[in-house]
Amino acid sequence: MVSALNSQLFRTFAVRKMFRIKKLDIFVAKQFGLLFVATFFICQFVLMMQFLWRYIDDLIGKGLTMDVMAQFFWYMALMLVPQAFPLAILLSSLITYGNLGESSELTAIKAAGISLMQSMRSLIVIVLLVVGISVFFQEKIGPNANRNLAQLLISMKQKSPELEIPEGVFYDGIPNTNLYVQKKDMTTGKLYGMMIYRQSGSYEDQAIILADSGMLQSTAEKKHLLLTMWSGEWFENMKQQDMGGSAEVPYRRETFAHKQVLLDFDGEFNLADASAFSSNAKAKSSRQILHDLDSIRHANDSVGHQFYTEARRFSFPLPSLQRTDSIRLAIELQKGTPDLDSLYASLSTDELRNVVKTAARQAQTASGDVAMKADYAKYLHRQERLHELEVIGKFTLALQCIIFFFIGAPLGAIIRKGGLGMPVIVSVLVFIVFYIFDNSGFRMARDDNWTVWFGRAIPVMVLAPMAVFFTYKANNDSAVFNMDAYRLLLQRMLGLRQKRNIVGKEVIINDPDYRADAAELGAINADIDRYTLEHRLLRWPNPVKVFFRPGDDRQIMEINERLESVVDDLANSRDRQVIHLLNQYPVLATHAHTRPFRRRWLNAITGIILPLGLFFYFRMLRFRLRLYKDLKTIEKTSNAITDYVNSMQNEL
Description:
- The structure is a single chain.
- The chain contains 18 helices and six strands.
- It is an alpha+beta fold.
- Helix content is about 65%, strand content about 10%.
- Mean pLDDT is about 80; it is low at about 10-20, about 240-245, about 265-270 and about 315-320.
- The protein has helices at about 1-55, 65-100, 105-110, 115-120, 120-160, 285-310, 325-335, 340-345, 350-415, 420-445, 450-475, 485-495, 515-535, 545-550, 555-570, 575-580, 600-610, 610-650; strands at about 170, 175-185, 190-200, 205-220, 225-235, 250-265.
- The protein has a six-stranded antiparallel sheet, with no helix packed on it.
């Protein structure tokens, strides 16, 4: 009966405890949810503005209607939703736990016996739901949004081409026309140094127009472009008529001071053909990418095999040789081992010149062919890598939500600053680290400098250890941003010296025992002399003893303890000269001159890794030399204090 009563009490206590934690989960979830919604729209707005500035030139002055602009912003927002999720989670989790820490609610939670990880349970569930939504967006909504957005951008660029004509590049946005402009005046809209290629039919019906300056304007009905030119020439092939079988094409040349040409162009906004974006990896789901990857790899292998087959073919032109040389070459070719060197030496000067010219021409042709095939093969493999990067990026971007949460929430608990001040600064720093590694990894993998998996996984490999470290520190209430601790650690690593800072005390209870302290300093000096003779600090120690054998310098540790005891007693002195002499004592490093680390296995690993072992070995030599100088300084200072104390006693 007692056991049944105990079990009932245990269940009642467990139910009450679960109910209390459930209230806490609801409270934390409400705090996080409101902040997540707000920060999501903030991050979405920032990302949209960043994306908008990239294409602002394609939107300004095009006369786009409101419905087209609404579609542009809608598809852009849908495309950027998965990217806004990690940033919103990072910022909202930072603010949530920063507010809890600043208002001492986090302290009350921990005082109730609830750990940091237990308080995160509801938020972990919410973050996992956000991860699922992110994957859904990238698989179902994102591809269509990317496709429609790319279609809109191409259509916007094709509208009002007079605003899109670049300098120094042939522009083919006008049907049947290629336009080259040397210089463009953005204020007046005039074009200088114009070269125009027009072709409305076959080769026999084309024109080349050169003009000193000109202007391109849309007509009122937006169906044509009016090209006005000044000071130019018109070269044109006329349509071939029946000229008795002559192969010549009629030709016309015209010089003009002012000329206007009407070009066919529909200036209204028309959507581009969506089939042009079917090969874009961003416009595909993971299933479509994996399905198309097989076809892409098969096509790449086929092209590579075809290039290899063509490269194995060996052919060379036969120059016009004399009859005897031709017969000789034919006989040697039948044998399969033609002696080309002797045949080349037997040629005449004219034949040698023809052979060299032919070989150079064929080498140049082969070089151009190889370069063209290399560029084409590079393009094909680039498309394959882009598909692989996209399918991996869909999952790494969703995984960033979890990583950013376990960075943001622990950092908020450590910093304990709410609001939009410190959390925003920390979020920006974390995002900059993520953006640098993510963008660099994507570019390096896309250009085939890194493997695809490494390029996409490098931000995860960098940020995941940070998340584990911050979560561990926050869960154990460890000080992460204690600058004094990091300063002391840096001083120990670099071997920087600490200086004494003893000041006179205003209230002294017990005066120092000068006679006993002077006697102790004399004994310490004697021990230092014996220690110096025995250990020979200026000699190079045995590396085997340093890295692979245990042992501490007990003698120097004992000397340091006795010295610090005397310094503590003399620090109660009212005499300024004694205080001044005490500050001349160096702070001894009692361990660094013997071993790099206190743990034996760390010393062994350091000794095995040769570059690291050399660094710590020479560091230890530096500490041995410093200890030798410090011991000499201690002897000198102790003698000065002893003499001063004796003089004080004689005066008394």
